[in-house]
Amino acid sequence: MNEELELFRDNIRRFIETEVLPKYEEWEHDAIFPRDLWNALGEQGLLAVDIPETYGGFGTDFQYAMTIVEEFYRANCAAVGASMAVHSDVVAHYILNSGTEEQKQRYLPAMASGDCVGAIAMTEPGAGSDLQGVRTTAKPDGDGYVINGSKTFISNGQHCDVVVVVARTNPDVAGAKGISLFLVDADAPGFRRGRKLEKIGMHAADTLELFFEDLRVPATAILGAVDRGFGVLMNELSRERLMLAAGGVAAAEGVLSETVAYVKERQAFGQPIADFQNTKFKLADVATDIRVHRAFIEECKARLMKGELDVASASMAKCSATEMQGRVVDTCLQFFGGYGYMREYAVSRAYVDARAQRIYGGANEIMRELISRTVLG
């Protein structure tokens, strides 16, 4: 199985080298990658790979899905990797695990081929990590619901064809008890895409505001049960957070490899900067930091595949790995001196892209809150 996984990894790397890296800077400049990349990814078999074959996937295990994420992050193509992860590792699994048979048949095969792009609309202007503060409403109306509200920071917002929308269906109960999830088609009347948001990093990832104005959906659009959406969200967040952690470790590995090559070539005071003790010691610390986190991430992967990954461990992985990613990229950029601050050097992109990792998927402060609950009993 390991040999098969490595062949799969090689296939991903070839695709990135031939189809992604040569165009990546152009996509960064345009602040979006082209829609047809989704179909190319589908044709290459890189979307929703661990979805059962019945629904268009390959029925592989979680390792294959994470290998895709890791290789895009390792290649410093996080904007594409993160967008793919939202589509394949978040939205597709929400539908697989909580959708009806009709919903699975309708969306999953098209998501695996790239014909249908998925997004999830949780965050609102006034409700980020605190999902209990959601104000978007879905009011019963006849045999369906009418959705009104707005969402922000939506990954895949420009390209999406279906969106998992978090909305309040019961205003008479407190907190998370009255939240439901809906599958909303982007061509539905009342669905409106807002402005493209300008970010400090992840430029090639399209990130938008979304608006819902008297948008009507049938009752069959509910994902899971009415007023039980928060439970669905909680069930899926551990996978999402482990995905972010795995991407963070892979990104750090990629930056370290690039930095090692640079310090061996760069001369200062008549010798390669790799020969200085400061370089040796700092890179030793970086390599150790990465390896320790790699071991923990592999443990978490094994536990998730056995259905044993708990909330605290997933939160530890996400928090610690993304904090480590930030330390590593900052340390490595310093070795490039002024060139590290120039966009022509990829380490500068790795630096700004890494910053989002500590925010999305639940800010790291929320991860610490979740971890503390286990620690304190």
The quaternary organization reads as single chain
Average of per-residue pLDDT values? 95
Write down the CATH class of the largest domain: Mainly Alpha
Q: Tell me the CATH architecture of the largest domain.
A: Up-down Bundle
Largest sheet, if any?
4 strands, mixed
Strand order of the largest sheet: 1-4-5-8
From the spread of the alpha carbons, the general shape counts as: globular
The sequence of SSEs as H and E is: HHHHHEEEEEEEEHEEHHHH
Structurally, the number of domains stands at 3
Low-confidence stretches: none
CATH topology of the largest domain: Butyryl-CoA Dehydrogenase, subunit A, domain 3
How large, in whole angstroms, is the Cα Rg? 21 Å
Helix content: 40-55%
Beta content: 15-25%
Structural class: alpha+beta
What is the CATH homology-level superfamily of the largest domain? Answer: Butyryl-CoA Dehydrogenase, subunit A, domain 3
Distance between the termini: 39 Å
Q: Given the structure, what is the number of helices?
A: 10
Please explain how this structure is put together.
The protein has helices spanning 2-30, 36-43, 62-74, 78-98, 101-113, 229-265, 277-305, 311-335, 346-355, 364-375; strands spanning 118-121, 137-141, 144-155, 162-168, 179-185, 191-196, 207-218, 222-223, 267-268, 271-272. By secondary structure, it is of the alpha+beta class. The strands form three sheets. It has a four-stranded mixed β-sheet, covered by helices on one side. A four-stranded antiparallel β-sheet has the order 2-3-7-6, with helices on one face. Strands 9-10 form a two-stranded antiparallel ribbon. β2 (137-141) and β3 form a beta hairpin. The two termini are 39 Å apart. The mean pLDDT is 95.
